[in-house]
Design goal:
- This protein is of the alpha+beta class.
- The protein contains 30 helices and 16 strands.
- The strands form five sheets. A seven-stranded mixed β-sheet has the order 1-14-3-2-8-6-7.
- A hairpin with a 7-residue loop joins β6 and β7.
């Protein structure tokens, strides 16, 4: 699979640094209430309520202090909340104020900022095991989650709580969380808002009904030859969406010839869909369950459907134990899982299929669903292992509530989910896609409506359906999210069931009763309008993406992206990311030329810094990943990396190869064969790519061996160096691209294994998991990685491109992730655009001959101490609004949360990771190393 021998193979584009996963630090502070003093800048804590303002809490426990909380009644960003809440910060010399390295408050030790210079010099990004991580909780949530955005980009809502904790964490956020709960630091002792509108009947909204016949016509129009749905741009049947179409047709029209044709087609696809490993192997539980439910809906026999006993095979393939047993079974996360269920909806549908078939679900299968209920009553979409961090969503909660209510015996669990759904409903009647979102999403609203109606909350269900009716498009279909203009089956299917007042528990396709002859001719089943297609094919609009990236509002003077708008400090890592996207697409070569000339000619930002103040080449803090990233850009645009910006980057990389691990306090070299100050697999890979592209295979021998040695048996790579045991999509894609570039076939098997692992991580909607959730960055990198074998992974690439298209906004930019705050993010957009091309960094090339640089336009931030008590040293939550203050100015804190994982170090490398905010670590982030 060597790229050296297959230069024509398109492969991915680089993405943000993988995460900052790091070992978790357990804080020993106890939780007690104490009073504390804070700077005058902080609003009184009592002024922040469940419906006004937001609270920020900083845990000084590791330094002998308390948990100090502050209030801002009108926060615009998480950075401002921290600042106005009474805290001061300091950034790093390399990343600037945008990366929070120290935090202080007048409420503790006279405003001393921690960690002190004696333990952290704050020259480079702090190590991943000792930095300030960023956590958030929305109203009604009593558990913490990583912020999908960093403090500079996150926009807190009324009743939100932010927390800053010093220590480390891992990619999944399962370790290193605050030792106190959100309710323990909320204003008013944990008071949270109840359901919007009428607390018992649901929000008051204008009445509305879904035009179910129109929706059914749209569904019929999506069927190829009237029998099945295919992936856009291909002839490959999409069995999942075909089952969705069948359910919708059954709900809308009952028993019909059209439904019979679809059911017959799916019966013929049973082997391919439900038994992909072979008829003698365990079935894919979600697929077998969906087909069994179709059989129940159409009054067919699920014990003899497509030549298989679907129910019998589900019963025979329940996991006896999970990884904790010491001998884990593939496809099993925990005891009680259906083999290969993977997600909560697959587990729930399998239980429901058995219930509808008159079979008692095997022991542990229903209980497994109850284990997925989070503290706030929501249900997580992933089959978590016991003890993992839990954060649910309305769609999964609605489905699981329906199933457990039908199963019986789970009254307390169902009541908890019902309460969550009531609280999660927005004043519009809609339900958000994820906790904390302020806008509605169609599928979650449809599933929640189905559940609430079944549980007796008819008014709340009616409000949800009324909102859905206003989202129905002129062609009858539904888009994914509020205001969407393109319909999709994933959203339309459940909306039809909600509109018809039914659900998968009760749906049966009955023969229609005789009716009075219609006054208008019957429909033929065809669509009212042809489905829209996105020219020239599947995927996001790359020209619009480039227009967003090169917009004067984003690309400062057409030369660089800013980390700090006030000082004009450049984020050089992010700037190179943007240049990679431009090079990959070729949509604005003059803009690319302008950026490259600025970097190569020693252009200075608003603080007088040039590219090599960021790479550190030739100095004490030479950053291997940063040098590699700059060198790859030079190579991609046919400039000389041996004389780029007046420095020999290739020689710098050779000098940066570690001969042995360094000893504390020197943390430059984690291992022999690593590069100095390259804290992540992503950063390390960039160094190798640069050396290989320069013909320095011999010099790269040790780094290549080190990278190869980091691969897990599963085929995945960890995010950080030294490795912390996690597995990450971003790092795996990048490592695969890197080893694929090595001449010969020595690493072909490793690359093949990596791609197989990547494909296995794809989510149902085409996205990929990352630190920020269902991550745009991870999807972009996955496309690049899978494009190393584009023919084999065409289906996965197509789905990922559709996912990226779904996350592109009207301005051309992209969201950081499917979950979390909406809005276009420069880092995510750069990675999405470049990644969507499928071009690997190993072969990325764009000639600038004949181009002209654009003219430069003129120029014109645990114990709980209760108010009134004394703020002691350790174990309390202190308010920062009392007399005594110490505020000080808050440096740009919160570099993009993205960097959580590799963030700590990752930040240093490539601003890419910052965008991944998931890693909570940085947000405004100073070009972290990726």
């Amino acid at each position: 699979m060597g790229t050296a021998q297959q230069q024509d193979r398109h492969v991915g584009k680089k993405r943000l640094l993988s995460l900052l996963t790091a070992a978790a630090v357990t804080f020993a502070a106890s939780v007690a209430f104490v009073t504390g003093a804070g700077p005058a800048a902080a609003d009184p804590v009592e002024q922040c309520t469940a419906t006004k303002g937001a609270i920020v809490a900083v845990d000084f426990g590791p330094f002998g202090g308390d948990v100090v909380r502050g209030c801002d009644t009108t926060p615009t960003t998480g950075y401002e909340l921290l600042h106005e809440g009474g805290f001061t910060t300091e950034g790093t010399q390399h990343d600037g104020d945008g990366f929070i390295c120290r935090i202080g408050t007048g409420s503790f030790n006279s405003g001393t900022q921690y960690p002190t210079p004696a333990t952290e010099d704050c020259v480079l990004t702090p190590q991943a095991t000792a930095y300030w991580s960023y956590w958030i909780a929305s109203p009604g949530q009593d558990t913490w989650s990583y912020s999908p955005l960093g403090a500079m980009s996150r926009k807190p809502q009324a009743g939100d709580v932010d927390a800053w904790v010093f220590g480390g964490t891992d990619v999944g956020g399962s370790t290193g969380r605050p030792t106190f709960t959100p309710d323990e630091v909320r204003a008013g002792g944990g008071a949270t808002p109840g359901p919007t509108g009428n607390p018992t009947g649901g929000p008051t909204v204008p009445a509305g009904e879904i035009d179910v016949p129109a929706a059914a016509r749209w569904v019929s129009g999506q069927l190829r030859e009237g029998t099945h749905v295919v992936d856009e741009g291909s002839d490959t049947p999409n069995d999942f969406l075909t089952t969705e179409a069948a359910y919708a047709l059954a709900a809308a029209n009952g028993k019909s010839l059209a439904l019979d044709k679809v059911a017959a087609h799916l019966a013929g696809r049973t082997d391919a869909y439900a038994y992909p490993a072979g008829a003698d192997e365990p079935p894919a539980a979600p697929a077998a369950a969906r087909l069994a439910l179709l059989a129940a809906v159409t009054e067919d026999d699920p014990r003899d459907f497509g030549g298989h006993d679907l129910l019998g095979d589900l019963v025979k393939n329940v996991c006896p134990a999970g990884p904790e047993s010491g001998s884990p079974t593939p496809g099993c996360t925990a005891k009680g899982d259906f083999h290969g269920a993977t997600y909560a909806d697959g587990q729930a549908l399998a239980v429901l299929a058995l219930l509808r078939g008159g079979i008692e679900p095997p022991a542990g299968t229903e209980e497994r669903l109850t284990q997925l209920i989070c503290q706030d009553g929501s249900v997580t979409g992933i089959l978590l292992s016991p003890g993992e961090y839990c954060d649910g969503d309305p769609a999964t909660t609605g489905l699981v509530a329906l199933v457990l209510d039908e199963a019986g015996g789970h009254e307390a669990a169902v009541a908890k989910m019902r309460t969550y759904l009531k609280k999660a409903q927005l004043s519009s009647g809609a339900f958000p896609a994820y906790n904390g979102a302020a806008t509605g999403s169609v599928a979650p609203t449809a599933y929640a409506a189905q559940a609430l109606r079944a549980l007796g909350d008819g008014d709340a269900a009616d409000a949800a359906v009324a909102w859905l009716s206003r989202e129905q498009l002129d062609d009858g279909g539904f888009g994914l999210d509020e205001g969407a203009t393109d319909a999709g089956l994933y959203a339309t299917g459940p909306a039809v069931l909600a509109g018809a007042g039914t659900d998968l528990v009760t749906l049966v396709a009955k023969a229609p009763e005789p009716t009075v002859p219609p006054t208008t001719p019957p429909t033929t089943g065809g669509p009212t309008t042809q489905p829209t297609t996105r020219p020239p094919g599947v995927g996001p609009d790359l020209k619009k993406g480039i227009a967003f990236l090169t917009s004067p509002a984003n690309l400062h003077q057409g030369r660089y992206y800013r980390d700090n708008e006030k000082t004009g400090r450049a984020d050089f890592g992010l700037t190179i990311d943007g240049a990679f996207a431009l090079a990959a697409t070729g949509h604005d070569d003059n803009a690319l030329r302008t950026i490259v000339d600025f970097l190569e000619q020693g252009g200075k930002d608003g603080e007088g810094r040039s590219l090599h103040d960021w790479t550190g080449v030739g100095g004490k803090y030479a950053l291997g990943g940063s040098m590699g990233k700059a060198a790859v850009l030079a190579q991609a645009v046919e400039r000389d990396p041996r004389d780029f910006g007046g420095q020999d980057l290739i020689a710098g990389l050779a000098d940066a190869v570690c001969e042995k691990p360094s000893t504390a306090p020197d943390r430059s070299c984690p291992a022999a064969g690593a590069y100095t100050y390259a804290p992540s697999v992503f950063a390390h890979s960039l160094g190798i790519i640069a050396q290989l592209r320069a013909g320095e295979e011999k010099a790269a021998k040790a780094p290549i061996a080190y990278l190869a040695g980091l691969q897990h048996g599963s085929g995945a790579w960890p995010s950080l160096i030294p490795a912390t045991g996690d597995s990450e999509v971003d790092s795996t894609a990048m490592a695969a691209m890197t080893l694929d570039l090595v001449p010969g076939d020595a690493h072909a098997a490793a690359v093949d294994k990596a791609l197989s692992w990547l494909a296995s991580q794809q989510l149902a909607d085409g996205g990929f998991p990352g630190a920020s959730g269902n991550s745009v960055n991870s999807a972009g990198l996955a496309v690049q990685g899978l494009s190393l074998d584009a023919e084999k992974y065409d289906r996965q690439i197509t789905k990922a491109l559709k996912f990226l298209a779904s996350q592109q906004n009207k301005d051309g930019g992209f969201n950081v992730a499917k979950e979390g705050q909406r809005g276009s993010d420069i880092r995510a957009s750069a990675q999405a655009v470049g990644g969507a091309t499928g071009v690997s960094f190993g072969i990325l090339a764009r000639s600038l001959k004949g181009t002209t640089p654009n003219p430069v336009p003129s120029s014109s931030t645990p114990a709980i101490v209760t108010p009134g008590d004394s703020a002691g040293g350790g174990g309390g939550i202190v308010n920062a609004d009392g007399p005594g203050g110490g505020g000080g100015s808050l440096a740009s804190t919160g570099a993009q949360a993205l960097g959580l994982a590799a963030a700590a170090a990752v930040l240093v490398l490539a601003g890419w990771r910052t965008v991944v905010a998931a890693r909570n670590r940085r947000e405004a982030a100073a070009g972290g190393e990726r």
